[in-house]
Amino acid sequence: MSDRTPHNVLSDSDLRILCCPLTRSPLRRDGEFLTSDVSGLRYPVRDGIPVLLIEEAQLPSGVASLEELRTRLRL
Predict the structure, then answer these.
(1) Is 5 helix (H, G, I), strand (E, B) or coil?
(2) Which residue blocks in the chain are alpha helix, DSSP H?
(3) Which of 16, 22, 42, 68 has its CA at a distance of 20 to 30 angstroms from the CA of residue 33?
């Protein structure tokens, strides 16, 4: 396990149990992030640990705020 880089420490089975905390949709690997295809939020992976806090996620392009995203998604 020592030869793994932080962004790929999660196994496929680990990734299957994680979901976007906003939409509860699956996440996919995206470099140093886990991305929700439904919301477009990008959650950072720091030192191999996914940070699944909505406030820490990067907003998708064209979205100015979390409230705007919630409105667009009707959440």
Answers:
(1) coil
(2) 12-17, 66-73
(3) 68
pTM of this structure: 0.84
Both tokens of 28, joined, read 């996919």
Closest to 71 measured CA to CA, from 34, 28, 22: 22
Tokens of 3: 């030869």
42-46, strands of its sheet edge to edge: 27-30, 33-36, 42-46, 49-50
pLDDT by residue for the chain (75 residues), tens only, comes to 444 444 456 888 989 999 999 999 999 999 999 999 999 999 999 988 999 999 999 999 999 999 999 999 999
Query: For the chain, which domains are there?
Result: 6-73 (2.20.25.10)
Cα 8 to Cα 68: distance, rounded to the nearest angstrom: 31
Q: 40-43, long-range: CB within 8 Å, 24+ apart, which pairs?
A: 40/69, 41/69
